[in-house]
Amino acid sequence: MRNNALIIFTRVPIEGRTKTRLMPYLTGIQAAKLHAAMLKDIQERIDKVEADVFVFHTPEDIHGLLHEIFFRAKDFFLQEGNDLGERMNRACSKILNLGYQKIVLIGTDVPMITEREIARAYQKLDFSDVVFGPSEDGGYYLVGMKRKFPIIFEKQAYGEGKVLAQTRSRLHREGVSSSLVRTLFDIDERKDVDQYRMAAVKDKDIQRMATFCCLQNFLKVSVIVPIYNEESTILSLKEQLYKVKDQAEIIFVDGQSTDHTLQLLGDEFVVLQSKKGRAAQMNLGAKYSTGDILFFLHCDSILPEDFLQQIKEVAKTHLAGCFGIAFDTKSVLMKICQIISNHRIKDRKVMFGDQGIFIWRELFEEMGGYQELPIMEDYQFSLDLKERRVKLGIARKRIYTSDRRFPKSTMGKLKIMWKMNRLRKLYRDGASIEKIHRAYKDVR
User: Fold this and answer.
1) Nearest Cα to 228, choosing from 258, 251, 250?
2) Domain limits of the chain?
3) Helix (H) / strand (E) containing 125
4) Is the pTM of this model over 0.85?
5) Is residue 79 within 8 Å of 108, Cβ to Cβ?
6) For 62-105, how does the pLDDT look when each residue is reduced to its tens digit (9 = 90+)?
7) Which of 26, 91, 349, 361 could form a disulfide with 56 if both were Cys (CB 3.0 to 4.6 A apart)?
């Protein structure tokens, strides 16, 4: 028997009985799998802690799921009591009665917990009566003590924002000292999942966790396609997206087409109606969508076969990115244009809509979406990302797009390239957006 004991306080990862606040964002099965992954991460951390491990669970673990995960635990107990506070109090009392000098109880909603927080908690009990691990929502994910303190768990409104502050205040009035270890966040709701994923982008340790890998499997991409008079391209894109209809959310946003685009598109996909303008159309599609990653796609695009997987791969380490562009043409000039355009992503941190922009929903919403300009909305979007110092990712493969804006002659192509460069310069210099828009000829 060791001097220290560690209590794992958890639900059994059963469909419909755990992580229910994440539904319907996740299905019941997905929520259970996520919780199981979080438990596996905790097991990996506590394996390095010098303490005997006891698992207190609810409901009955009839399939032995917890025994399989916490295979080194000393014992397993069913939680007892009418509410959360009473159940935790009884668990702590039970283990203290076994003769341990220090005990620490942790919840299982915090996959970011490490052995350092637990070891630090035992250390702090050398000079404090009680130790807590604060959670960002105002509660706590860890509590430790050397003797029984029922007052900790009495009359608590768990799930509200001031539980820890009220508990420490009550302890102070009773002359009981308390200290804290590092503050972490729970994964209880979708916003917490978003926060975890955002943290993972910059942390390779998180990317190796079972929780992250599990969430990657559940990652949902929303493909948002603004359309206007696309009867010459809609059937090709429709055929491409039909192949992934069950793997992604697909939303077309029509800007009041006057040709046969909608008839050709049919009713197999979600189609929203919007005022004309790519920015307004894309913002409406984003508002309607439910995906974790938003992928804005032009209708005249030819996608790589594995484009969804490529987006997910880039999104592991980047908050925003694109595919880059390729032209299906033998024109040397267009090949040069392609090289310059793709180099601009790395060199100037600028990407354009025809390169297939994708971005985490949380960041997109934080930015307020696209500025609803009649033109240059993608350029401004890149400038906004650049101002935030967002590092752009580039997929391995390219999107092929039409060169319908460019005349067939070499001189005509050069004139269009020069004109687009001039319009961007005017925009950077603060010229009227209406003036720039008038100079831009819509080819549809």
Assistant:
1) 258
2) 4-192, 219-403
3) none
4) yes
5) no
6) 999 999 999 999 999 999 999 999 999 999 999 999 999 999 99
7) 91
